[in-house]
Each structure stands twice: as C-alpha cells, then as structure tokens.
Amino acid sequence: MMHSIEDYHVGDTVQWTKNDSDIQAEEMGEVLGFDEDKGRVRVRFKKGTWTFKPKSLILISRGTLVEGDQVVWQSHDSDVPFGTIGQVEGGVPEWDVEVQELLPHSCGPPRLPEGQPGDLGRP
C-alpha cells in the first residue's frame, strides 16, 4: 500500500478504497496532480475531481507519459507559443501544466482554439 504523494505520478490510474454516490466501487480514476501542503493526491473520476489521502488509493497502472517523451501543450501563453513541442523531464517542474493538456507529439499538432491566429474554423 502506498502512503505518500511521492508514491504517485501524474497520469497514474488509481482506485479509491471506498465508494459513495459520486464514485462507484472499483471505478478507475486518473491522477491529475497533488496538494502538497495537505499531502493529498488530486484524482479525476467520471463525476468530478477530488483530493484523497494517498493511503486511501490503490495504484492500478502508471501513466503513459514518461521522462523523455515529446509532448505538445494544447494551450499557449507569453512564454510558450501554441504548438510548441516540449519534453517530459523529471524533477521540479517550472510550470504547472495538467497532464490532460498535453498530447504526445506523435499524435500530431493540437487543434487551434477558436479565435486564435491561424484558426481555420475546423471542428
């Protein structure tokens, strides 16, 4: 059993050891991040996202992104232009990006959000 947030990684598939009206027994969830101040793991399930004590989670499988993978952030800001290719690295991240905002570079370029320069209005 895992007892610390360091035992989990963004993208891991987990189950909650309990269940309620929002999370069914044996439902799979995805680790999105951490609340390090409270020592909790942030997990997305079908009906929402909540934080959990690490000891109340069961690791089912590791996430698909690993160190060295090339990824494309599906957004942009003043530091990172839209469509920029990055690389997954270990250690403390300089930016806090949710794993669901990243696409493996092998999936091709992300779709431009509506109203962005270069948007062709395609679905």
List keywords for this structure.
31% strand; SH3 type barrels; 123 residues; 3-stranded antiparallel β-sheet; 2 domains; disordered C terminus; 5-stranded antiparallel β-sheet; elongated; 8 strands
Structural domains: how many: 2
Query: Per DSSP, what share of the residues sits in E-state strands of 2 or more residues?
Result: 25-35%
In the CATH hierarchy, the architecture of the largest domain is: Roll
Shape: elongated
Describe the biggest sheet? 5 strands, antiparallel
Low-confidence stretches: 107-123
Task: Give the ordered list of helices and strands.
Answer: EEEEEEEE
Between the first and last Cα atoms, what is the distance in angstroms? Answer: 44 Å
Per DSSP, the total helix count is 0
**Mean of the pLDDT scores?**
77
- Helicity, as a percent range: under 10%
Beta strand count: 8
How would you classify the helix and strand content by structural class? Answer: mainly beta
Protein model, in words:
The structure is a single chain. The chain is an all-beta fold. It folds into 2 domains: 5-61, Roll (SH3 type barrels); 70-107, no CATH class. The chain is 0% helix and 31% strand. It contains no helices and 8 strands. The protein has strands spanning 13-16, 28-35, 40-45, 48-52, 57-61, 70-73, 85-87, 102-104. The strands form 2 sheets. Strands 4-3-2-1-5 form a 5-stranded antiparallel β-sheet, with no helix packed on it. Strands 7-6-8 form a 3-stranded antiparallel β-sheet, with no helix packed on it. A hairpin with a 4-residue loop joins strand 2 and strand 3. It starts with 12 loop residues before the first strand and ends in a 19-residue tail after the last strand. 14% of the residues are buried. The model is unreliable at 107-123 (pLDDT under 50).
